[in-house]
Amino acid sequence: MSTFTIFLVLIVVVAFLLIVVIMVQNPKGGGLSSSFGGGGTQQLGGVKKTTDFLDKSTWTLATVLLVLILVSNVAINRGPGGVESKALDPDATTTAPALPTAPAQTTNDAATATPKDSL
Question: Which residue windows are transmembrane per the record (predicted)?
């Protein structure tokens, strides 16, 4: 398994966890935080601590995802030569696509004839 594949799997796992953490949150007081601390009781850390945990985990997972994406760019197998683009390769030759030619203008005597001439 290549290094890029490992990074790809980690990116997918972190993205899934980030989706789950975001979906659990509810900005209007619902979600997981309200079920743990509803009614003013302090169950499992209370509303404030659950909200803080979800907020911190969201930022942490987002940062980890960004770092994994940036580091995975280094792990991409660029093949022999390691040139990223043909625009950067001095040996690459490219041909410009042929431009379409305009149709030749033909004159049609019937089209240019006046109605008087055609009678």
Answer: 6-24, 58-76
**Quick count: other Cβ atoms within 10 Å of Cβ 50?**
21
Half-sphere exposure of 89 (CA within 13 A, CB side): 11
In contact, 75 and 4? CB cutoff 8 Å: yes
Report the C-alpha gap between 45 and 39 in whole angstroms: 14
Query: Using one digit for the tens of pLDDT, what is the confidence trace for 19-48?
Result: 999 888 866 655 555 555 554 444 444 556
Domain count for the chain: 1
Whether the CB-CB separation of 84 and 16 falls below 8 Å is answered with no
CA distance 32 to 47: 9
- Cα 46 from Cα 104, distance rounded (Å): 81
60 in a structural domain: yes
Compute how many other C-beta atoms are within 10 angstroms of the C-beta atom of residue 26. 14
* Residue 64, domain extent: 15-75
